[in-house]
Amino acid sequence: SGSGHPDIDEVLVSSSEIAAKIAELAARVDADYAGREILLVGVLKGAVMVMADLSRALHVPLTMEFMAVSSYGSSTSSSGVVRILKDLDRSIEGRDVLVVEDIIDSGLTLSWLLKNLRSRGPASLEVLALFRKPEAITVDVDVRYVGFDIPSAFVVGYGLDYSEYYRTLPFVGTLTPAAIERGAPS
Ligand code: PRP
Ligand code: MN
Ligand code: MG
Question: Cellular location of this protein (predicted)?
Fold first, then answer.
């Protein structure tokens, strides 16, 4: 596989591809928000890597907030039931909010989150997601910035987890059947 990690079957997006894409997305965001201030809302925990890299690549004034939401179940697919584990610390009323996500899979988390945030009266509300799976298209979520459209395989790395593991891998890839079976890193 060439990843150097025994649990990784195939690398789908390399760390250098991710870095280049983040730089490209940051340039677009900088241009679109010129003269304004952004409130980045990172969706814990998956978005931590994108937040860390994107925020440092941006030049417009920004502040960061985090929200922790999770779909029920810790397995390889999402259920659509979303719970707030940690809400925002402050009001987003009148703010230019950019929600930062690692991945849109079914789109259910984001669809729910956008409805929730829209009700709080932001001046604008946009989404940046580094990865998106084809199924996400079936849900009515308007995502302004998408990094990569990837196949529907279960993937880990760069924030994406399997049973909370593998988030720190610098690339995104698929797990070997043995690693999935084991449910923990080797
Ligand atoms: C993952 C991912 C997205 C969401 C996408 O989060 O980080 O937030 O699922 O799935 P969906 O489009 O089908 O709703 P998860 O709920 O696993 O929590 P985590 O970020 O803490 O891993
Ligand atoms: Mn998440
Ligand atoms: Mg997860």
Answer: Cytoplasm
Closest Cα to atom 18 of ligand 1: 70
Q: Is 32 a catalytic residue?
A: no
- Using most ligand atoms within 8 A of CB, pick from 50, 82, 105 the residue to mutate for ligand 1: 105
Alpha-carbon distances of 157 from 20, 41, 56, 70, 98, rounded to whole Å:
17, 20, 20, 17, 22
Q: What CATH number does residue 84 fall under?
A: 3.40.50.2020
Q: Could you tell me the pTM of the whole model?
A: 0.94
- Asked if residue 2 is part of any domain, the answer here is no
121 within some domain: yes
169 within some domain: no
The answer for 183, left when phi > 0, alpha when psi is -120 to 50, beta otherwise, is left
Instruction: List the structure tokens of 15.
Output: 């760390």
Of these residues, 87, 96, 105, 149, which one is catalytic? 105
| Number of structural domains the chain divides into | 1
Residue 63 lies in a domain: yes
Residue-wise pLDDT tens for the chain (186 aa)? 578 999 999 999 999 999 999 999 999 999 999 999 999 999 999 999 999 999 999 999 999 999 998 776 555 556 667 889 999 999 999 999 999 999 999 898 899 999 999 999 999 999 999 999 987 777 778 899 999 999 999 999 999 999 999 999 999 999 999 999 999 999
What is the C-alpha to C-alpha distance for residues 165 and 177, in angstroms, rounded to an integer?
15
ipTM reported for the complex, 2 dp: 0.98
Residue 133: domain span: 16-159
